[in-house]
């Protein structure tokens, strides 16, 4: 369902050397998989996510998502493609002046969902992430773990095929981080493909999922249901 075929990404720094962030990566992630991407800072993890989001284009190689070849996708097709993806970031990226309900509903308004569908789906996803009672709270009134659960609800409300999470537990204590991981696992169990970038060795070891380890832009390890790759 996600396929990288000899993908390279070189960032062009006009004032400095070019950076080969991703070098000749070939990779397959099946529909319904749960995959961790790990590796040192600068190894190319976020670049992989940004390539998938079509925020940046591959310098060479091909990327397919389902039966869509996103490599040469026309600009005007990108918004529709992105609706198939849900994204969660380390810093939550919630709208500060909107409450929990509005933050989640806003993601639906952007894709022009009928009001009655929004009224049905927003409470459903808030219940799923355990935040039904806090729907009127502002992000500033929530803990980091709760804010991330709002961000996950927002990512899920459009029923994406794939959930991409870039360091979703980066700023959390171990208890909250574990709760978020269990939530992502639950979402995966319900059929969504989940790709998580993380630095947390503890989490990766405990979750027992496939782990792709990157180093200097290449995949140095790809293990099914194993612990963190020790490639350093
Ligand atoms: N927009 C950019 N312009 C130029 N170079 C970039 C850009 N974004 C990333 N890089 C470089 O590409 C390489 C890979 O970066 P990337 O962000 O993918 O790594 P990462 O594994 O996600 O790191 P981290 O764990 O610190 O987030 C690094 O050397 C980085 O400096």
UniProtKB/TrEMBL annotation:
GO molecular function: ATP binding; ATP hydrolysis activity; transmembrane transporter activity
Subcellular location: Cell membrane
Domain of life: Bacteria
Job of this protein: Part of the ABC transporter FtsEX involved in cellular division.
GO-annotated cellular components: plasma membrane
Name used for this protein in its record: Cell division ATP-binding protein FtsE
Family: Belongs to the ABC transporter superfamily.
Gene that specifies this protein: ftsE
Keywords tagged on the record: ATP-binding, Cell cycle, Cell division, Cell membrane, Membrane, Nucleotide-binding
Membrane topology note: Peripheral membrane protein
Subunit structure as annotated in this protein's UniProt entry: Homodimer. Forms a membrane-associated complex with FtsX.
NCBIfam families for this protein: FtsE (TIGR02673)
GO biological process, alphabetically ordered: cell division
Residue ranges constituting the ABC transporter domain according to the UniProt record: 2-232
Upper classification of the organism: Bacteria, Bacillati, Bacillota, Clostridia, Lachnospirales
InterPro entries for the chain: AAA+_ATPase, ABC_transporter-like_ATP-bd, ABC_transporter-like_CS, ABC_transpr_LolD-like, Cell_div_FtsE, P-loop_NTPase
């Amino acid at each position: 369902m996600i396929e990288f075929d000899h993908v390279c990404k070189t960032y062009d720094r006009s004032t400095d050397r070019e950076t080969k962030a991703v070098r000749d990566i070939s990779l397959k992630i099946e529909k319904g998989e749960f995959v961790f991407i790990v590796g040192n800072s600068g190894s190319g993890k976020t670049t992989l996510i940004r390539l998938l989001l079509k925020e940046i284009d591959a310098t060479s190689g091909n990327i397919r998502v389902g039966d869509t070849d996103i490599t040469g996708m026309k600009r005007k097709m990108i918004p529709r493609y992105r609706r198939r993806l849900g994204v969660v970031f380390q810093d939550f990226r919630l709208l500060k002046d909107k409450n929990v309900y509005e933050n989640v509903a806003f993601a639906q308004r952007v894709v022009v969902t009928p009001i009655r569908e929004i009224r049905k789906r927003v409470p459903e996803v808030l219940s799923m992430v355990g935040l039904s009672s806090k729907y009127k709270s502002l992000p500033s009134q929530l803990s980091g773990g709760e804010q991330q659960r709002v961000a996950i609800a927002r990512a899920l409300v459009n029923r994406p095929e794939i959930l991409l999470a870039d360091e979703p537990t980066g700023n959390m204590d171990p208890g909250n981080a574990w709760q978020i991981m269990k939530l992502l696992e639950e979402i995966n169990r319900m059929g969504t493909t989940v790709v998580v970038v993380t630095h947390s060795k503890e989490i990766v070891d405990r979750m027992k999922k496939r782990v792709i380890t990157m180093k200097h832009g290449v995949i140095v390890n790809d293990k099914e249901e194993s612990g963190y790759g020790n490639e350093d």
